[in-house]
Amino acid sequence: MRIAVIGAGAMGGLFGARLALGGQEVSLIDASEPTIQAIKRQGLILKSHGGSNTVMLPVGRADDFQNPFDLLIIFTKGFHTSAAIESVKHLVGPNTWAMSVQNGLGNAERIAAVVPNERIIVGMTNFPADLIEPGVVSSHGEGHINIWTASGEDDANVHHIAEAFTAAGLECIANPDVQVAIWEKVAFNAALNSLCAVSGLTVGGVGKSEQGRSLASQIIKETVAVANASGIAAQQSNVATAIQHAFDNHVSHKPSMLQDVEARRRTEIDFINGAVADRGRNAGVDTPVLRTLGDLVKLIESGY
Description:
By secondary structure, the chain is an alpha/beta fold. It has twelve helices and twelve strands. 47% of the residues are buried.
């Protein structure tokens, strides 16, 4: 497949490198000139438990590329999705698919402004990845990907893409219940990202606190209630198990939202806690704890 990865950060770098090493024709599209120049100069470097791999890939801004791609994978933060998909609309042909396994809610709706809904793939992934410096990504540990069409319809292309990802070392399944996986990850992120961002504590620090564990539990309960009211069969127990695993095994980890706060960058809070609170309001489900944590992150941002 001819694949464009849009956003050459941690996750974009991980997926781009593994897909290229797996034999796919991959190009990287980014808006950051330092990132583009670093990858042009040294290649994309992936450091993992298997060692270090360097791949030389075409890289540039959207306008540097021509001709439609088979697959566009969006790896920007949610608040950049609209601009990102608009920038690559000239690379969308009649058979182009677009894929989002981004954090949060609402990305598919933004992608649909350019790509027809029936050719949009949504999903989630829990692969670990950290950006060491522009063009250098570290990924230690394994994960998985769940994907399905945004329309909910089965399509052979989704199965073909899942097989290509798995062959490249990115374990992927075509899962018609993908919305459950998406919402359970949203609940996980709504709890850990917001609590770490507000407290300044690592995942382990939150887990050591009785108050931290209690707040996480309440956020999970509220998020799952919104999902259930929206017809999504997410389960609190699945999220609670994932949270406990993080408390036990990712003690020193700083979630991306905490890293953003420390760097005084805009966070994705509007696409996680904010999006769930909005949908809860529309569904008649109150989300006081989730909404308050979201407001506190916004308050921190206002102080930049």
